[in-house]
Structure formats: C-alpha cells, structure tokens
Amino acid sequence: MSSSFTRSLCVVSCAFGLLASTSVLRADDVTDSIDEAVKAYKANDYATAAQSLDAAAQLIRQKRADQFKALLPDAPSGWQAEDATAQAAAAAMFGGGVSAERQYKKGDATITVKLITDSPIMQGVLMMMGNPMFANADGGKLERIKGQKAIFKNKDGSGSVNVVVNGTLLVQIEGSDVTDADLRAFAEAIDYGKISQLL
C-alpha cells in the first residue's frame, strides 16, 4: 500500500479502536467501510477506496459528537431544556468540526450551550485567551471557571462564556435576557474532567 493510504487507514483504525467500546453504531458500520476501502485499494479502485475511508471517518466523527452530546448539562432548577443535538462535518464542509448543543429556557431568558472541537474557530478563541487585549474587547474579561480559562461577557442581558478545554475543545455558552449568575451557573455545570477524557 502507498504510505499516504496506509497513514489514512491507520488514523481511521486507531480512532475506531478508541471509540469502539462505547459506540452506539454497529461496529460493522465502520469496519465494513474500512474493509471496503482495503478491497477497493487492492483492486486499484482508488476513488472507491477514498470514499470508503471518508465514510468510516465520518461515522467516527458522528460517534464523537454523540459522546459530547451526552455531556451537555441537565437544566438547572427553574430552567427547561430542549433535546440536545449533535453534528459532525468533514474538513471539506465549512472547515470541518464536531459539535453538540442544547438550548435552555426560563421565561424570556434563553441559554445555548455548545461543545465544539476539530473546528477552525478554535484558533481565534485561543488567540483571545492568550492576549488580554483581545479578551477584554467589547467588555470581555478573562476568568477561571472550575480551573479552566474562560472569557466572560455580559452586556444588557446578552452575554457569553467561552471556555477552552485542553486547548482543543470550546465550551461556548450564549444567553439572552440573562444575568451573570445564570451564565456562571451553566459554565460551572459542565463536567470538564469528563470532557478531557474524550480529547
């Protein structure tokens, strides 16, 4: 096999090995795609081989998104939670990324919690985290929430908290008609330790 194909197959296979123990997908959904890729490659059908590897990688990304979805917090007292959702996009689609989100409501107040990784937006957030001048723009300020670096903003009831975990995942909390206490309550409800275990 060519070195590039072997590397791609190794990446997919290793990622599958890490996720297989908890996957709700049938194992065959991933392994069958990998087997198809190997078979097609040996037959010099490189287009099908690449497509099959892409399919396996996408299934794994979807599983990662489902893992993060399970870590979105329950609604605090007085709040109602919508059903959580998960998304996974390949790099060719809007830069790629794996995410999960859930919306919460209390009267007119609304808060959305998102977990985002493998996304190009991480670069901009990390830049802000590392430069107080950027972090303080538009009223933002650097804080630590449960030991994690965070950028906290709230102006006239419209606010956000951005927390970076292990330099690779963004916890994004955005709210309208909310208080500082509302935003902090959701930021502190996140289990950052469990998130770190998935990264």
Structural class: alpha+beta
Q: Which CATH architecture of the largest domain is right?
A: 3-Layer(aba) Sandwich
> What is the alpha-carbon Rg in Å?
20 Å
Proportion of beta-strand residues: 25-35%
Specify the helix fraction band: 40-55%
Number-wise, the strands total 8
- Alpha plus pi helix count: 7
- How far the N terminus sits from the C terminus, by CA atoms, comes to 30 Å
Largest sheet, in brief, is:
8 strands, antiparallel
The stretches of 5 or more residues where confidence is low (pLDDT under 50) are: 13-25
Molecular shape: elongated
Compute the average pLDDT: 84
Keywords: Signal
Describe the structure.
- The structure is a single chain.
- It contains seven helices and eight strands, in the order αααββββααββββαα.
- It is α+β, with helices and mostly antiparallel strands and 199 residues long.
- Strands 1, 2, 3, 4, 5, 6, 7 and 8 form an eight-stranded antiparallel β-sheet that branches.
- The longest helix has 24 residues.
Give a quick rundown of the structure.
This protein has helices at residues 3-19, 27-42, 46-69, 121-130, 132-135, 180-189, 192-197; strands spanning 80-81, 85-89, 97-106, 109-117, 141-145, 148-155, 158-165, 169-176.
Tags for this model:
single chain; 199 residues; alpha+beta; Protein Transport Mog1p, Chain A; 2 domains; 8-stranded antiparallel β-sheet; 8 strands; 44% helix; elongated; signal
Give a topology summary.
Layout: H1 3-19, H2 27-42, H3 46-69, E1 80-81, E2 85-89, E3 97-106, E4 109-117, H4 121-130, H5 132-135, E5 141-145, E6 148-155, E7 158-165, E8 169-176, H6 180-189, H7 192-197
Antiparallel strand pairs: 1-3, 2-3, 3-4, 4-8, 5-6, 6-7, 7-8
